[in-house]
Amino acid sequence: MFRLTPHNRATTILLFNIILFALVSCGGGSNSSDSLIAGSTASSNSSNNSNGAGPVVWEDTYNGIHYFQTFDSQIQNVSLTASHSVFVWGVEQSVSAYRASSNPKITLSYYVPWAYDPDATHDLSYWKNFHPDWVLYKCDKVTPAYFSTTLNMPLDISNPDVIAWQVQNAATQASSQGYDAIAADEYSLGGWGGCGIYKNGQWKQLYTSGYDDPQSDKDAVAWASAYRKQIHALPHPLGLIPNFQYDGRPLNDPTLLGVVANVDGILDECSFTGCGSGNLSGQNWLNMVTFIEYVQQQGKAYMAINQAMTNDNAGLQWGLASYLMGKEHAAGLYLVSAKQYQQLAGSDLWRSEYSAPIGTPCSAMQATQGAYMRVYQGGLAIVNPSANSINFLLPSGVYTDLYGVAIGASVTLNPSSGLVLLTSKQQC
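User: That's the sequence. What structure does it adopt?
Assistant: Structure tokens below.
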């Protein structure tokens, strides 16, 4: 994200293999059958709300649509924002103002960058005097491995002393101020260009090429494990919520599962819109739904940012319908125009459509008629992640769109489109 300012792994892998087998078996949205997608908890009792082993107690999102706030620097009315949000990523407003609101249990997170010094005024000269052996360099052994366009000093997150400093430098303050979690930005697998450090003046190679080194993945997971353990042990325990995308990895990848096992929630800046590069399609879209479900099954939350390709009803419907496919007991939605993402960060973007009385899911997502549908008590969520238009026959009943406009017996679903419909008749 741009910024201006104990699970058994073998069991987990087995579970994901079962989920993937079920997904393949259901036909991936073909016209041949109306099959049930396995892997969702929707078909279970709605009281199945595990909060996991972490300190963060997430609001139950099983009923309805749940908005979360991304930063809050431009918010004028904290109480209003708190009243319709389940989570705030990167709180800058007064924590006490949130606690005094009508939603005092809202989950509040303290922003930190994952792998570099949050203070950009600390240049290389500063770090050479402070801790020269903590600076991560590129493979040229000269240039710090700056993350993206930042000039904040990149640090060796495999060093336990760096992790202890990160906890002391930010997490202890967040704990004392009553935050619930650390929002660790730009957490990733695969490395970002760093190759090594200087230990006692001698070059120490950490990674072979700076990118796609398996050791960097191991170090990223080890960092999450160590950091999370330490912030869980603070006087006021904190959870760990990184900004993380699985980036198309196999869903049973041990490293990916290791990330999920060592966090308390995930904020995904890309989710169903590819960080604003385009709506996900086909198997990529289906994998995203599966991953969101899986994270929640582990008692962790999934907060999905959708940077809509179009700032219109089509963009809204895509984000809403896709979110409703994987939403269980701990999932939130933040929808923004991709072109205005940076400009609107910190603004309250809640919309009246989020109060739609869609209720709780009746079952898991289904593959039907070449698309995907999930039935809710008070409506339907339908997504066409394919490249083809589909004439979709609705289940029997009387449906309206989110604005009360009556819908006929069938609808046309454009490629990469979604639709949320409502009905006054309880469907389960």
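DSSP finds ten helices and 19 strands in the chain.
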